[in-house]
Structures are given as structure tokens and as C-alpha cells.
């Protein structure tokens, strides 16, 4: 429905149509760029400003199940200064800017929810410096993690954050990405030392330093990480690197019950055994992988555990993990140290998403992303699996259980409204279960436009503090609007 | 000099006197609480509001060398709700509030620079919960780290951040404290999971969650950590705990030159050998400790290294460290695994500050706090030592060199204006040296009122972004004013 907006919402409305949801929340304001704005951008970028429909469509597509809106134009930028110039032009006209990386977001981050200009950063893909002595490197936002690790190979160093997708570093910063190795090496918050970013007024700032730690002023680096492009466009980052371990040992343990698998994980973590990865797959995931990859792995909940260190360390540590797993009735423990064998053990986990989706051909998928305290992990996963069965839904559970973070991957036919609602209801119950025990609605995917309603459930009135910061730093609400906050928040 | 303040400064001036420095910066505005404010606080707190001169004096004393101003009143609070009530009363009157913990700040954080009410949080010293299964605990801000670790002992867990002083957890959060174990276990930013804080309007917020990671909205936890009470008063914190290691092994290696000592450290870090502590002491520190503790340790630069892990891990790792140290010409390597022997090796490092001060009886001390990239660590320390000699100043260098962070401890007679200026000039050159190579003016002590002039040197225009956040969240500038920012910033 169309309606008159409140005083606080008016603050954000520049022109064009808008509508209110049934709760009276502002859900859409179009703020398409004017001809004048497009001309100014064209004169800045030439052919690197595109309004071709195929390009717009591509920039209105991500890997989420959300309805995502295409932008009105796409700016293919090549430098921080160019990003600043684009933002200045858009700021003058109140036109939204939406940063675009590899397009692998799962929560609608790249949607031009209110129209505007996508800033495609993938042309900024230079590795600016590698400093082995400082165990750090500096990259532009469009560098992908795979590209970076190929480049690093000769140095004996690696960039460890691995969200699965070959995401861009800029995108990974925006959502505070993490992944299978976070249990050992941390997430983007601990692996980014410094940033360059373009703020809403077009100002270029540099945050952080090349030192390992600092107490100098507010931590703008960690404020920008996870801010999903709503405070600034990240253009460069100084990243922390780790040495490639001398030895790696991987094991896969199967269990009779998911409870035993998760309890094993919890015990390993509580005993402080160093693990580099700790991944859970439930029966459904294993079965889907079997079908997808024509394997005959026994269909049981499985735990993949990996150790990194010196050869003697990984031997000693994996020995203890095997002992713990056996205490919880593990079956068929398989261990591997060679690259080929380790790759084989990991192959199932890596294909889990596509394997699950392939069980319902033609489906799109929803991936939940809760993280919960260790002490509740077993209960929450067991309850979630029971809920899945009770709801008569098909889904696989995989997870970075060493961090208390797991995903239920649910394929659904987007045309089947009833099924889609069932999937959403299931996800809703899971999020509430996680928040109730002190967890979070998103461990690594971000809020985007998909989880805005949960932000207040999780953070209560501290969302108002977040929004005060947003309004102060982006008074025209041009930085990726419609993400994290409802427009009329507060 | 007294003068008319600028438009932006006026924003902060409520009443009373103020003065401008020669650079035209606002350095002092008194905003003493009115009788009405004091009455309202008295009616809230009864005897727990004090205006006794001895109490005011105690709350105008820290461990820094700065001129620190006493507050007009001290509120001894007992709960988060009481802090909120105090802040509301003060906010209504535009009266500054200054959080006060153990009083161990080194940068004048507790100074009532513009008058106002100190909020003494040491009565909030309850450990609210310990959850061994989640490896976390929840404490009030007035709990000290020693108190917490005594309480934790029976659980086999420990809180690892150790800044030396028996600081309060609230104070450690305010300055983003770290210390000897940060190289292994992180600093306050990585060890605080969630916070309760009272904001400038008296609103109580809860940030973060009990999950190990989250991508839900802006990271207010890490924004508050290191914000030195200028955004909110932290009242409670959920802390991450680690298992007490099965085995610990300590070694002290002496070198012919400080360059060899620091190069050993850099090599160990670059090779990724896990170290739990990595501390440097220069010749002056060793000599001062000898005199202070009546020891006869050869006067040479020394490196203290500690390993935590299983017995076989610490053996293997310390063996590699010894090899590296030998490559750099180490002499007299001493190793210890028993508690008594390890304590003996550490005793010198623990007394280094007092030992250094005792070399100039009656002195106060300045401790520098730069952190630099590893790749520059050796050069910066060698240059700093040369500068010390050239300046004919006495000082000891100790440092958490595994994080690139070191302190020069300089005793001086505060009556000796000339010497004090020489000490300040030396510190100024050191900070500039650190910032020039991409480091920071403060690795763990914070900006306080002592390093405000360096914040812009280090962070340039991003200080404006910090200050925009400050103004948005604390429009009356009542939260610990006169710290981090000059009043008339921007």
C-alpha cells in the first residue's frame, strides 16, 4: 500500500514511489538516478558505466533465495579515487550506491532495493603488496580469495578465511565472512588489519594500521567489517597471513547419532585440542552426497576434523581426537595425511550444497546460518533435526560446529508458495531457538535484506545505537539502503 | 588564555570556564555538577555519593605522569541500573561522567578534565556466571583479572589477558588492554564476546552474543572496546576463557646485541612456532633488575619465550626456538618447566617497571607504547635505543615483541622541566618513527588525554569519522570528555 511516511522515514525519502508493509514499515523507496547523474557518471567512466539490460540483470542476481532488484546502472570502477568520485556524484543527487563483488551473497546484499548505481569492484583486483616478513598483504577489494592464495603460494603463506564460494575480499569484509578454518585462524574481523574505504560523502579514509594490535581511537576497521556496504565502500584491505602448515591431517568419523557427533566436537573444543577445521554433516547431507557423487558411504552423521602443525603435533593431536570420538561411539574412522586422500575426505563436504539441491531438481535453496553457544550446540542441532522431520521438510545439516555455527540447507520450488512458507517458518523457529539460548541469527552470512526482522530480536534497543551511527555517517541513506535496517527504524 | 570558542566547540560547552591552548584548541571546560544534580545523586545513592576531599583526590590519581584533575563527586554504584540512573541525572544537567575502575590507567583516562562525577565501578565486582561448557563467563565491570582467575582456578579455565597491573575488567575493556599472553590468546577485542553498557542518554544496551562469531549488524562490542568511556559506561561483560595448558615451558635467552634478540623473535613468529609469550628486555632493564633484586644476571639483551600445550608439544616447540636463538648467537639459554623455576625466570620481567623507576629515586615514569609491523621491529628498536643514548636519557626497553609492541620506561623528576621536555621529545620522536612505518602510537595503553595529538597523525581524516560517531552517540559530550578527541575536533 502507498501511504504517508513518518518524520524519521521522510529523512530518507528523496523522490519516487514507496510503499509500506502491513506493519507500517517502509519497505521500498525507488531513488533512480536522474539523467544528470547518469551523464556525470558517464563522463567520469565512459564505457565503464553500463545501463545495458543484461548487465543490470546480472547485477540484480545473487545466490540467495530472495527477490533481488536490479540497479539502474553499473559503474565498473578501477581505483579508490574513482569510487570516491562515483559516490560524490551519487551523494549530490541522493542516489543509492550498492557495492558489488563476486555476487555470492546469500542474503540479498547486492539488491538495489531502492534503485541506484551498483559499484562493481571486480576490476580492482590487484594484489598491491605482499610482505612475508610482516605476514601480511595489501589487496584491492575485487581480489578473490582463490586468486590471492594462488599468488601467495610461492611465499609459503596463506590467507585462511574460506567461506566456500570464491568470494571477493571486499564482499567477505562486508559480511564478516568466515568458514571451515575459522575455528583455528579466525574470521574477517581477526584477519583484516587495515582498510581503505569511501564514506557516504565521498571521503576516502584509511583505518587501522600494519601493527598487530592498537588502542588508538575507535575501531573503524571492525565497524566497517560486517557493515554490508551501509557505512562505506571498502576498496582496499591489509590482510593477515599465516604460514602454510608443515603437516595437515584430516579424519572423518561416523557416528550412530548426531548427538554423539556434536558431543565429540564439544569435548574436543572444551579440552582445547587445537583443530584447524571441525565440520559436521548429518545423515541427509551424507545421503545426498552419496547420490550426487555416486558414493556408497554409510549414511550416518559424520564429523570431519583437521589438524595443522608439525608432523608430530598433528599425529599427537589427531590421536587424542580419535580417542574422544571413540568414547562417543564413533564408527569407521578414516584418517589421511596425503593431499590426495585429504581431498577425497573433503570432497563430500565441498559438494554438500549442490548435492542437497540436486535432490529436488529445479529448486532454489535457503541456507540458515545460526550460531549458538557450545553449551547449547547439541540440543539445538538435535531439536532442529527433529523439527525438520516433524515439518516433513527435506534439508541437510552441515556446519562449522567448532564455532557453534551450522547451516540447514533447504531446497524448495519457488513456485510452491505453501512449501516456501513452510521453509520460512522452519527457518524462523530455528533463528528464535538460537537467539533464545544466547546465539545469533547469522554466524557469517550477514543480515542483508533477509534477516532484518531478526536484528532487533537479537540486539533489542542496541539496534537503535547502530542506526544512530548509520544516520550520522550516511545522513542521506545512500549507502546500500534497505540492508540491515528497515528504512523507518526508530 | 580565555577566549570565545568556535561553533563546533560551543556545542559542547554547557557552562563555566574554559581555555584555549596556543593552537586554538579547547583544552579545558569545567562543567561542575550543580547543587541540584548533586542532590539528585545523593537522593539516589545516599552515602554512596561522596564529595569528601580525600575521595575526590583518590579519584584524581592514576599511574600516569599526566596532570590529572579530580572529579567534583564520586558515585559508588552497585548495579547497571544504578549506573543508568546516575548517567540520566548527569545527562539532564550536562554534567560529565568519568568511569573509574582500578585507577591503573597510564594515559590520564580517569581525569575529570572538565569536572563532573566519577562513577566508581569497583563495587560491581560480582562474577555473575561461569559456563565451563561454553568456555565463557560473565562478570561485572569492577571484577579484577586476578580476582577472576582465582575464582576460575577450580574449573581448569583461565582468563588470559594480562596487562601487568591488577586492572578491572571494565578498565581493560575501555583501553583494549593486552599484555604478555596476547601473542597467543589475543587482546580484549578477541576475548570479549558481549557487553552491557550504559549510553549517554542513560539507556542500557547489550551488545554481542554468547556465540563464537556473528555477522548480525554493526559490531558495537568492538566499538565500545577501546573507546575509553567516551561512548558509554561498560557495566558487564561476557568473556572468553581458555583451558589452563597441560604443560608450560619458559626459556630466557641472552644475546650479544638487541638486534639479534629481536631478529630471533621475528624469525620465530614468521616460522609460525606457537608461542604463548615472547618478551624482550634490553641491557638497561636487565641491569636495573639486577640492582633492584640483587641479582648478578649478565647484562645483555634478553628474550623470554614461553610455550603452552601438551608436554610433547612444548618440548618440540621450545627445541625449535632454541635452535633459532642459537642461529642468532644466543648465549646462556636457560629453560624451565616447573612452576617455581618458571616464576624465577619471569620475576625480573615482572619487576622491570619498579626496578627502572628505582634507579632514579623519587621519579615518576613515562612509558611509551608503540606497536610496529614485524618487518620494522628490529630497526625501530635499534633506532630507539640509539636515540636514547644520543639524548643522554636513562630508560629501559621491555616489550611484547611477539605483537610488535614495546615500551620504553623513562623515569624523570617532574620538577625538572628540562628533563621532562627531553623525555617528551624522545617519546614524540618514537611515536613518529612508529607511525611512519605503518605502526600505531599505542598498542595497549590507549589515547586518554596523553596521546590526543597523535591520533590524527596516525589516523588522519578517519578521526573525523570517529568524532562523528562520538557526537551522534553523545551529543552533550558528557561521556569522559577530554579523552581521545580535542573538544573542538573538526
TrEMBL record, chains A, B:
<keyword id="KW-0560">Oxidoreductase</keyword>
<dbReference type="InterPro" id="IPR016167">
    <property type="entry name" value="FAD-bd_PCMH_sub1"/>
</dbReference>
<dbReference type="InterPro" id="IPR006094">
    <property type="entry name" value="Oxid_FAD_bind_N"/>
</dbReference>
<dbReference type="GO" id="GO:0071949">
    <property type="term" value="F:FAD binding"/>
</dbReference>
<keyword id="KW-0809">Transit peptide</keyword>
<dbReference type="GO" id="GO:0005739">
    <property type="term" value="C:mitochondrion"/>
</dbReference>
<dbReference type="InterPro" id="IPR016169">
    <property type="entry name" value="FAD-bd_PCMH_sub2"/>
</dbReference>
<dbReference type="GO" id="GO:0004458">
    <property type="term" value="F:D-lactate dehydrogenase (cytochrome) activity"/>
</dbReference>
<dbReference type="Pfam" id="PF01565">
    <property type="entry name" value="FAD_binding_4"/>
</dbReference>
<comment type="similarity">
    <text>Belongs to the FAD-binding oxidoreductase/transferase type 4 family.</text>
</comment>
<dbReference type="GO" id="GO:0008720">
    <property type="term" value="F:D-lactate dehydrogenase (NAD+) activity"/>
</dbReference>
<protein>
    <recommendedName>
        <fullName>D-lactate dehydrogenase (cytochrome)</fullName>
        <ecNumber>1.1.2.4</ecNumber>
    </recommendedName>
</protein>
<dbReference type="InterPro" id="IPR036318">
    <property type="entry name" value="FAD-bd_PCMH-like_sf"/>
</dbReference>
<keyword id="KW-0496">Mitochondrion</keyword>
<dbReference type="InterPro" id="IPR016164">
    <property type="entry name" value="FAD-linked_Oxase-like_C"/>
</dbReference>
<feature type="domain" description="FAD-binding PCMH-type">
    <location>
        <begin position="67"/>
        <end position="244"/>
    </location>
</feature>
<dbReference type="GO" id="GO:1903457">
    <property type="term" value="P:lactate catabolic process"/>
</dbReference>
<dbReference type="Pfam" id="PF02913">
    <property type="entry name" value="FAD-oxidase_C"/>
</dbReference>
<dbReference type="InterPro" id="IPR016166">
    <property type="entry name" value="FAD-bd_PCMH"/>
</dbReference>
<dbReference type="InterPro" id="IPR016171">
    <property type="entry name" value="Vanillyl_alc_oxidase_C-sub2"/>
</dbReference>
<keyword id="KW-0285">Flavoprotein</keyword>
<keyword id="KW-0274">FAD</keyword>
<dbReference type="InterPro" id="IPR004113">
    <property type="entry name" value="FAD-bd_oxidored_4_C"/>
</dbReference>
Amino acid at each position: 500500500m502507498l501511504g504517508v511516511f513518518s518524520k524519521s522515514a521522510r529523512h530518507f525519502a528523496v523522490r519516487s514511489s514507496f510503499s509500506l508493509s502491513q506493519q507500517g514499515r517502509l519497505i521500498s523507496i525507488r531513488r533512480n538516478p536522474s539523467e544528470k547523474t547518469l551523464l556525470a557518471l558517464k563522463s567520469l567512466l565512459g564505457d565503464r558505466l553500463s545501463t545495458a539490460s543484461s548487465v543490470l540483470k546480472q547485477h540484480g542476481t545473487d545466490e540467495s533465495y530472495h527477490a533481488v532488484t536490479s540497479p539502474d546502472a553499473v559503474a565498473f570502477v578501477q581505483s579508490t579515487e574513482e569510487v570516491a568520485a562515483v559516490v560524490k556524484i551519487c551523494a549530490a543527487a541522493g542516489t543509492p550506491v550498492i557495492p558489488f563483488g563476486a555476487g555470492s551473497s546469500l542474503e540479498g546484499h547486492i539488491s538495489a532495493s531502492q534503485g541506484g548505481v551498483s559499484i562493481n569492484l571486480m576490476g580492482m583486483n590487484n594484489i598491491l603488496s605482499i610482505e612475508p616478513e610482516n605476514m601480511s598483504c595489501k589487496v584491492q577489494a575485487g581480489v578473490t580469495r582463490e586468486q590471492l592464495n594462488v599468488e601467495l603460494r610461492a611465499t609459503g603463506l596463506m590467507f585462511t578465511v574460506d567461506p566456500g564460494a570464491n568470494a571477493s575480499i571486499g564482499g567477505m569484509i562486508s559480511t564478516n565472512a568466515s568458514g571451515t578454518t575459522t575455528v583455528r585462524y579466525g574470521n574477517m574481523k581477526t584477519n583484516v588489519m587495515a582498510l581503505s574505504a569511501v564514506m557516504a560523502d565521498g571521503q576516502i579514509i584509511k583505518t587501522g594500521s600494519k601493527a598487530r594490535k592498537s588502542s588508538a581511537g575507535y575501531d573503524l576497521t571492525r565497524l566497517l567489517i560486517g557493515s554490508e556496504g551501509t557505512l562505506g565502500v571498502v576498496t582496499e584491505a591489509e590482510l593477515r597471513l599465516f604460514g602454510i602448515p608443515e603437516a595437515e591431517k584430516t579424519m572423518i568419523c561416523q557416528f550412530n547419532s548426531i548427538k554423539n557427533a556434536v558431543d565429540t566436537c564439544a569435548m574436543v573444543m572444551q579440552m582445547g585440542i587445537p583443530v584447524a577445521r571441525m565440520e559436521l554433516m548429518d545423515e541427509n547431507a551424507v545421503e545426498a552426497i552419496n547420490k550426487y557423487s555416486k558414493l556408497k558411504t554409510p549414511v550416518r552423521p559424520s564429523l570431519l576434523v583437521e589438524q595443522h602443525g608439525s608432523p608430530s603435533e598433528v599425529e599427537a593431536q589427531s590421536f587424542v581426537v580419535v580417542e574422544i570420538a571413540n568414547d562417543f561411539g564413533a564408527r569407521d574412522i578414516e584418517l589421511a595425511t596425503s593431499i590426495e586422500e585429504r581431498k577425497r575426505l573433503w570432497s563430500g563436504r565441498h559438494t554438500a550444497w549442490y548435492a542437497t539441491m540436486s535432490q529436488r531438481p529445479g529448486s532454489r535453496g535457503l541456507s540458515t546460518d545460526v550460531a549458538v553457544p557450545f553449551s547449547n550446540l547439541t540440543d539445538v542441532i538435535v531439536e532442529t533435526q527433529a523439527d525438520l522431520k516433524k515439518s516433513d521438510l527435506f534439508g541437510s545439516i552441515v556446519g562449522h560446529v567448532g564455532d557453534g555455527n551450522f547451516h540447514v540447507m533447504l531446497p524448495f520450488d519457488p513456485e510452491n508458495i505453501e512449501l516456501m512458507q513452510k521453509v520460512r517458518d522452519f527457518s524462523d523457529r530455528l533463528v528464535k531457538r538460537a537467539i533464545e539460548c544466547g546465539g545469533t541469527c547469522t554466524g557469517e552470512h550477514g543480515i542483508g535484506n533477509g534477516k532484518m526482522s531478526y536484528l532487533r530480536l537479537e540486539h533489542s534497543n542496541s539496534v537503535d545505537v547502530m542506526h544512530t551511527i548509520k544516520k550520522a555517517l550516511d545522513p542521506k541513506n545512500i549507502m546500500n539502503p534497505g540492508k540491515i535496517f528497515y528504512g523507518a527504524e526508530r
